[in-house]
Amino acid sequence: MIIPPTPTRGVSKFSVSSLIQTQFVSRWLRQTLGAGRGDVCGFRLFSHSQHKHVLQSPATETVSEDSVDDDGNAGMQVQSVVKDRDFYVKLLSSAPSPREARSFLKKFSSSLPPPKTRLATGSTSKQGISTHHPLLDAPDRIDNLALVLVETGLPRSELESFATTLVYLQKLGLTTIVVLNEAAHSTDRIGQTYHRSTGKEYRDRALHEAFRVANVLDRSGGRGMPIYDGVFQLNEPHFTPDASLIQVASLESGTSPVTASLSTIHTALRLHQTPILTSLATTTSHHVPLSSSISVSALAQALVADTRLADPARLIIVNSRGGVRTQAGPLSLVSLEEDYEDIVEEFARRARAVTPADNSGNIPTFLPGPGLEDEDELLDPTQLRDLQLCKTVLSQLPPTSSAIIAAASASPTLLYNILTDRPLFSSSLPPPSNNLVISDLELTPSEAPTVVRTGVKVTTHTSLDTLDLPRLKELLEASFGKTLAADPFWDRLRSCMDCTLLAGDYMGASIMTREPWPADEPVPRGEEMDVISGKHPGVVYLDKFAAHPKAQGSGVADALWRRMDRMYGDWLWRSRADNPVNKWYFDRSDGNFRLPGTHWMVFWHGARGIPRMRAYAEVCRDIPASFGPSK
């Protein structure tokens, strides 16, 4: 069976052959499923003279004598193999580039499940009782961990889609801890009053939902362990019981009275079961409902302090709504350092009314008027709550950790994110006009999940005096792989630099200059002239665009590009015709042409490019080269 690539605008599709030809991937698949030397998930690899690889399905399914267990359950094993095979074929058909695959395997290979083998001789006692116990196979430390917040009350079909994806994530080596998100108590502040009867109703409802999720997970091939007690504790000074009600003090950032105990979670994970937690805190005598954001934050703090569990690499928020949307469209990526305040400001500006209340998280509380929900569903405050939770949790985790907000119906996209650690479409491009296709799942752009990262802060420098020039030189040389002619380059920038945008701690940079309008070129009609000199103010030129190799895939380039887009409407740049980055430039430019008689491609961004083409050509001809030979 040949699997052709599916071209999709806005999604970086990857050919199956490009990944198959990297031997470590096929070796990983063989180890994961325990397949024979020449088989990958029941498929056999063939190499043709043209060096093309195809996946061919065996014509018939055969079951060897060794594959039949003592109870003769051959049919169930065949179904399991077929299901696993289909999963890996789907995975490969929507998988990333070989570089991203290597990055994934480097992080997750230690957590991949061992090959499936029969028990060794002597694993049962004389009485026929197995001496094998899951605790004996439990690892001393779990390296790849994700916190998963799941909205309660999901329709059965969506819950099944999520459960199947959760099982596949575990096959990829990701250990998950599930926390149920009760919508009725989703506010970020607990300053609410709960009647004891209401608390009991919440507990009963939470228990029912925990067992419902566990049941669906079990039917999907996983193993869930509902846990409703013993994880979250509420410190007594913050607990004020009354004759008929329970009151909990409001929580301030960093001073949460809720703590998390991991003993029952350790037990579940060592038994290879997925903990399914309810957001119930206990005191000496009561169960108190918590907001899921507070429980997840407390759990993250406990995990960071724990030595047997690694810091969570992902926070996954699964809901019925999907990712974050603004007036500009769905957001595929949110950099908290760069985008969070702007998103909050937009929500506040568009809200019908904002309560100027005590709000330590800087999240506006919306009081929509009658019918506003129908008129503007983008004002759904749960979007901001999700972002605030991401911000709170990621601030406690390493900068390499990330979050993803996805609809349960789009759960398969989580596999793509785990493999690539990037969004479905680039944040520096407009949302695609066509539907997105991941494996056999088709999504509209508005249904795409949102990846959330801490990101890097982009700072603006209008003078070389505020820059560390040796470090900037090191960044440019590492990015371009060439030696910078530093002195003449700095001299040129001192006369024409408009600004340098610096990402993080010299992890990326955009150097923008303002080049004079060519003297022999007429100024197009409609161009604004300088009021004082009466001359054209010049054109903005992207002299250098660099991302450190260590920052590749972290969103640094997208963050710089989005900042440039906000600051400048029009700019141009040039690139060698054989530059492999040109594909990225083609996608983001509004036009381009080959500069005659040179090795340069000229690109422009903005609506003014066509009438400026002759001027752009002259500007690019006159700028001296700044790099020497390759290192």
Automatic annotation (TrEMBL):
Residues 456-628 form the N-acetyltransferase domain. Residues 120-130 have a biased composition (Polar residues). InterPro entries: AceGlu_kinase-like_sf, Vertebrate-like_GNAT_dom. It is found in: Mitochondrion. It is an enzyme of class 2 (transferase). Pathway: Amino-acid biosynthesis; L-arginine biosynthesis; N(2)-acetyl-L-ornithine from L-glutamate: step 1/4. GO terms for molecular function: L-glutamate N-acetyltransferase activity. Its main location: mitochondrion. Residues 115-135 are annotated as: Disordered. It catalyses: L-glutamate + acetyl-CoA = N-acetyl-L-glutamate + CoA + H(+). It comes from the Eukaryota. Keywords: Acyltransferase, Amino-acid biosynthesis, Mitochondrion, Transferase, Transit peptide. GO terms for biological process: L-arginine biosynthetic process; ornithine biosynthetic process. PROSITE patterns: GNAT_NAGS (PS51731). One of its GO terms (cellular component) is mitochondrial matrix. Its EC number is 2.3.1.1. N-acetylglutamate synthase involved in arginine biosynthesis. Belongs to the acetyltransferase family. This is Amino-acid acetyltransferase, mitochondrial. It comes from Gonapodya prolifera (strain JEL478). The lineage of its organism: Eukaryota, Fungi, Fungi incertae sedis, Chytridiomycota, Chytridiomycota incertae sedis.
